[in-house]
Amino acid sequence: MRKSPKFSPEVVERAVRMVFEAKDQYPSQWAAIESIAGKIGCTAETLRRWVRQAERDQGLREGPTTAEQQRVKEFEREVRELRRANEILKLASAFFALAELDRRLKS
Q1: Can you tell me the distance from the alpha carbon of 56 to that of 48, in angstroms, rounded to the nearest whole number?
Q2: Alpha helices, DSSP H only, in 5-65?
Q3: From residue 86, how far is each of 37, 63, 80, 98, 103 by CA, in Å?
């Protein structure tokens, strides 16, 4: 289970924007990420993941966008629920089939 988010979406958005705006002031994007991560109180790796996801969301990088990831989660949740419902229906069907056989044998 994931921990509750430590940073609000506004802080994440601002930190990512700061990295994009500061890219010319540092020799590399990683240097900018390390500097800004220290300022906002997160690890450089956390900020790097936020930046990469923002790049995917903007179409600058290959990979699933946030909306696509959310959609996949919803589909997986729906599949789990449908599998549970199918299992319940199978058990109920077997139960009633046995009950019908018992009824026929007794008559």
Answers
A1: 12
A2: 9-21, 29-40, 44-57
A3: 48, 33, 10, 18, 26
pLDDT score for 102: 76
Phi, psi for residue 26 in degrees, rounded to 5? -125, 155
Residue 58 burial (C-beta neighbours within 10 Å; 0-12, 13-18, 19+): exposed
Q: 16-36 pLDDT, tens per residue? A: 999 999 989 999 999 999 999
- CATH number for the region 1-63 comes to 1.10.10.10
Unique residue bearing structure tokens 């229906």: 89
Q: Quote the tokens at residue 92.
A: 């109920």
Q: What is the pLDDT of residues 41-68, one digit of tens each?
A: 999 999 999 999 999 999 999 999 999 9
pLDDT value, residue 5: 64
Query: Distance between alpha carbon 11 and the CA centroid of its chain, in Å?
Result: 19
